Task: inverse folding
């Protein structure tokens, strides 16, 4: 199963987790108190840059019957759509800039350049996903309803096609998100299934008509003779934006180390435990300033899940303090290159398409899913051979010992166990080889003895036959 007891899994006490929560609250307060003109300039410049890129792209596409103009316009439009989606639409809709009280840059008024309505995304994403991050049965973003991303989800034959479903989701990510959020909106608003003119359906249909008309009719028609080229440019830009958004989201939620949790973990969950669940259930990827901006600073997914409504431009400085807390409480800080994080998610998608009987590990100790039960039956070096007490303070350094130390020690123990089992297998193989060699020698000797006996018997038979023949000849001579 996934994690049911986060305290046991993290190897921290309730007091440790409470103190961790207080320190994270302190980080939030310090950022909230320091928000000001610098942050406002950042978001306004980002909006101006995005709009400038889009205007330039639209202007260049008037000449898109020329190949180079088409390539340039399409590239500019792709970048503009990525920025609008990641740094603007996503983060504004999280309420990161509501403190400015600017009606244009506010979560309740911003409508993003995506198929689904922002309001439906806010309710599905901000509430369902960020409240219940990676909780099985509560977080609808865990696999987006079509992918099996943990062994806790029972395997079904339909999962065999999830590698293909993953490619389809990547190429049509805005539509996948729109349909996903629309479904959750109807569920949360308890909308009757057959009520076609319900508010969620009307809002969804209205946004689709607007988006399709804008991208595939209005803007192409503006360019006149270049209608087809502009249509292709818009479709290509949407595809590029979809693929990038998909990659960023999957790198933040599905690499190894982004843990999953059961509903039982939510029972009486404290504020500190909620913070800890966000830290253990998310993953970062390494990025420079340009890539961070293009990802909406979601390369800092851990920080985003801890503080989803704080300005995204503050995530780099917040990340420094969060890493310090991870070191202090001996917690893993899951990060890696963009390529590495995506390949781990990609491996999980293909691996979990198979029935469990083809998989080696369990839902307690798999690379993509683990729980506190992965430590059961393992005697860690810091524990006595008889005691199961976890040494929470390193006697040599005086530092707190938590999940990172436990994972490290468990890895060493399991590697040693694997080494011993491998050595035992080698010894057993050698013993079997000696036994087989001995048996082959015995068989050779037995075969040789049988052959020798057969020769003697054949010689005896020949001698007897000769005697009989001589006897018959003597009788005839008489």
Result:
């Amino acid at each position: 199963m996934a994690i049911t007891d986060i305290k046991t899994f993290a190897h921290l006490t309730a007091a440790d987790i409470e103190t961790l929560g207080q320190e994270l609250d302190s980080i939030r307060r310090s950022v909230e108190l320091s928000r000001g003109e610098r942050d406002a300039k950042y978001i306004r410049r980002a909006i101006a840059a995005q709009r400038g890129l889009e205007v330039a792209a639209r202007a260049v596409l008037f000449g898109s019957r020329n190949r180079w103009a088409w390539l340039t316009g399409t590239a500019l439009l792709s970048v503009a759509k990525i920025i609008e989606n990641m740094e603007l639409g996503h983060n504004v809709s999280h309420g990161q800039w509501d403190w400015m009280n600017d009606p244009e840059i506010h979560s309740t008024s911003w409508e993003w350049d995506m198929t689904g309505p922002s309001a439906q995304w806010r309710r599905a994403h901000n509430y369902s996903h960020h409240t219940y991050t990676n909780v099985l049965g509560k977080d609808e973003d865990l696999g987006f309803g079509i992918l099996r991303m943990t062994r806790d989800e029972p395997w079904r034959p339909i999962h065999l096609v999830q590698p293909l479903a993953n490619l389809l989701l990547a190429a049509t990510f805005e539509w996948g998100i729109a349909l996903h959020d629309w479904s959750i909106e109807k569920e949360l608003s308890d909308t009757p299934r057959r009520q076609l003119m319900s508010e969620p359906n009307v809002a969804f249909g209205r946004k689709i008509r607007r988006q399709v008309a804008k991208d595939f009719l209005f803007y192409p028609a503006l360019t006149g003779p270049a209608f087809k080229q502009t249509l292709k440019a818009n479709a290509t830009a949407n595809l590029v934006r979809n693929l990038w958004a998909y990659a960023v989201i999957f790198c933040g939620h599905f690499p190894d180390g982004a843990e999953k949790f059961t509903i039982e973990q939510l029972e009486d969950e404290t504020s500190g435990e909620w913070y800890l669940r966000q830290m253990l259930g998310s993953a970062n990827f390494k990025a420079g300033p340009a890539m961070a901006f293009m990802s909406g600073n979601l390369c800092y997914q851990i920080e985003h899940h801890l503080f989803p409504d704080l300005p995204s431009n503050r995530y780099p400085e917040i990340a420094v303090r969060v890493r310090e807390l991870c070191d202090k409480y001996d917690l893993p800080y899951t990060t890696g290159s963009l390529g590495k994080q995506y390949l781990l998610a990609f491996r999980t998608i293909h691996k979990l398409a198979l029935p469990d009987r083809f998989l080696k590990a369990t839902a307690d100790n798999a690379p993509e899913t683990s729980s506190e039960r992965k430590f059961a039956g393992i005697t860690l070096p810091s524990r006595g051979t008889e005691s199961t007490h976890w040494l929470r303070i390193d006697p040599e350094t005086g530092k707190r010992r938590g999940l990172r130390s436990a994972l490290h020690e468990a890895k060493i123990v399991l590697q040693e166990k694997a080494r011993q089992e491998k050595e035992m297998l080698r010894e057993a193989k050698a013993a079997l080889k000696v036994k087989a060699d001995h048996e082959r020698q015995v068989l050779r000797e037995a075969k040789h003895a049988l052959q020798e006996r057969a020769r003697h018997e054949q010689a005896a038979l020949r001698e007897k036959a000769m005697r009989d023949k001589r006897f018959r000849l003597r009788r005839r001579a008489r």
Q: What stands out?
A: Residues 403-477 form the longest helix (75 residues).
